[in-house]
């Protein structure tokens, strides 16, 4: 499982907008073009909403997407 401790630390103390519960580090599955990636991101323990920060989406995730698309 890929962990992003700097992202977890940055969102510590945030709450879920939908249910008001605190976000905690949690497992999430990201899928793209048939590939599945287990990651740890800030996640609502009640509704399961996950934060995917812009820097992750436009950084590491974009790099992985481009590698998969080039195959």
Automatic annotation (TrEMBL):
Keywords from the UniProt entry: DNA-binding
Keyword DNA-binding applies: yes
Presence of the UniProt keyword DNA-binding in the record: yes
Matches recorded under InterPro entries: DUF7479, DVU_1557-like
Lineage: superkingdom: Bacteria
GO molecular function, one term: DNA binding
Every DUF7479 domain range: 13-71
Pfam families membership: DUF7479 (PF24292)
Signal peptide (residue range): none
Protein name, as recorded: DNA-binding protein
Organism: Oceanidesulfovibrio indonesiensis
Higher taxonomy: Bacteria, Pseudomonadati, Thermodesulfobacteriota, Desulfovibrionia, Desulfovibrionales
